[in-house]
């Protein structure tokens, strides 16, 4: 009898337009699976959505005869729209995110003046996940790691020896995520990174994005705890919290807002669902002036 839990298989699908990686995590062909951090294509010039990236996920799931148990979000992304709602309609599964999403909804309900019709209780999602909660993906087991800093609602997902870190970490030569969005906090991000880097050195870490510096290398999105400890340009061993906070604060002050932050946030706090139809039969994203 095999007393060891099964190891997850991880299939990453890279979206070159948003530099985002969507993961399909499963035990074997025909098993249950989870989809992590999906992408719905959006053209900000025309306001049109496409399903090219999401359809690649669907094609892979069907090619492996997988049964979608979960559609997981590490946070409410500011750089791409989530395809969670579309994927659920096509493949089933429960849409889940960390329970602190309600903090994000509260902040942006005010920024976008969404009114009383928008519920800020997380009910747009099928499941709100608590810190350290463990839930099954078929024979696999997933643990929720609360990892605030980039946003106050970020989580990572530990599935066997694989940890899906969202925007907490990037590849070692890229560093860490910004902390200047509403509710972001560099001290909290430093603590979250230390939590992840306290795991055994051979644990595999899977990034949500990759931005190869100066295009000097191919896109990559898998690292290890040990590699991050030794080589991460922002938080390698020996970097103190004070040093990290000073670096992150100075760096964030130079960064522009992501191109898609305004449509993405108001879409993603709805679990990837569209804004409601207005009286003319059209849906609208709001663009607040001088608010961010």
What does this protein look like?
- With 292 residues, the protein is of the alpha/beta class.
- The protein has one domain: Metallo-beta-lactamase, Chain A.
- It is 24% helix and 22% strand.
- The chain has seven helices and 14 strands.
- Strands 1-2-3-6-7-8 form a six-stranded mixed sheet, covered by helices on one side. Strands 9-10-11-12-13-14 form a six-stranded mixed sheet. Strands 4-5 form a two-stranded antiparallel ribbon.
- Helix 4 (186-197) links the parallel strand 12 (162-164) and strand 13 (204-206).
- Helix 4 crosses helix 6.
- The protein is globular, with a radius of gyration of 18 Å.
- The protein starts with 8 loop residues before the first strand and ends in a 24-residue tail after the last helix.
- The mean pLDDT is 96.
Strand and helix map with partners:
Elements: E1 9-15, E2 20-26, E3 32-36, E4 41-43, E5 48-50, H1 52-63, E6 67-72, H2 84-91, E7 94-98, H3 101-111, E8 127-129, E9 134-137, E10 140-146, E11 155-159, E12 162-164, H4 186-197, E13 204-206, E14 222-224, H5 225-231, H6 241-252, H7 261-268
Parallel strand pairs: 3-6, 6-7, 7-8, 12-13
Antiparallel strand pairs: 1-2, 2-3, 4-5, 9-10, 10-11, 11-12, 13-14
List the keywords.
six-stranded mixed sheet; 292 residues; 14 strands; alpha/beta; Metallo-beta-lactamase, Chain A
Question: Number of DSSP helices?
Answer: 7
- When the domains are counted, the total is 1
Q: How many runs of DSSP E, i.e. beta strands? A: 14
Large-scale geometry? globular
Average pLDDT, rounded to a whole number, is 96
Q: So, CATH architecture?
A: 4-Layer Sandwich
Output the structural class. alpha/beta
Largest sheet: 6 strands, mixed
CATH superfamily: Ribonuclease Z/Hydroxyacylglutathione hydrolase-like
Assigned CATH class? Alpha Beta
Strand order, largest beta sheet: 1-2-3-6-7-8
Q: Approximately what portion of the residues adopt beta-strand conformation?
A: 15-25%
What is the CATH topology classification name?
Answer: Metallo-beta-lactamase, Chain A
Low-confidence stretches: none
**Helix content class:** 10-25%
Please trace the helix and strand order, writing H or E for each element.
EEEEEHEHEHEEEEEHEEHHH
Report how far apart the termini are: 57 Å
Give me the Rg, rounded: 18 Å
């Amino acid at each position: 009898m095999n007393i060891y839990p099964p190891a997850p298989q991880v299939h990453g699908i890279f979206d070159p337009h948003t530099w985002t990686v969507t993961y399909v995590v499963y035990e074997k062909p025909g098993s249950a699976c989870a989809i992590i951090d999906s992408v719905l294509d959006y053209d900000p010039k025309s306001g049109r959505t496409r399903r090219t990236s999401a359809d690649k996920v669907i094609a892979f799931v069907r090619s492996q005869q997988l049964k979608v148990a979960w559609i997981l979000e590490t946070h409410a992304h500011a750089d791409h729209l989530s395809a969670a709602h579309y994927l659920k309609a096509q493949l089933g599964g429960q849409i889940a995110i960390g329970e602190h999403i309600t903090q994000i909804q509260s902040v942006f309900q005010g920024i976008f003046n969404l009114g009383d019709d928008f519920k800020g209780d997380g009910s747009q999602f099928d499941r709100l996940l608590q810190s350290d909660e463990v839930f099954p993906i078929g024979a696999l087991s997933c643990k929720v790691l609360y990892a605030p800093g980039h946003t106050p609602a970020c989580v990572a997902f530990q599935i066997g020896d694989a940890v899906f870190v969202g925007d907490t970490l990037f590849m070692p030569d890229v560093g860490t995520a910004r902390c200047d969005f509403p509710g972001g906090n560099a001290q909290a991000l430093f603590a979250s990174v230390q939590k992840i880097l306290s795991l055994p050195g051979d644990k595999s870490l899977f990034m949500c994005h990759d931005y190869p510096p100066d295009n000097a290398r191919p896109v990559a999105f898998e690292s290890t705890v040990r590699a991050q400890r030794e080589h991460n340009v922002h938080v390698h061993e020996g970097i103190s919290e004070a040093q990290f906070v000073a670096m992150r604060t100075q760096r964030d002050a130079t960064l522009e807002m992501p191109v898609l932050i305004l449509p993405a946030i108001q879409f993603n706090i709805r679990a990837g669902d569209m804004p409601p139809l207005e009286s003319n039969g059209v849906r609208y994203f709001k663009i607040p002036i001088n608010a961010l």
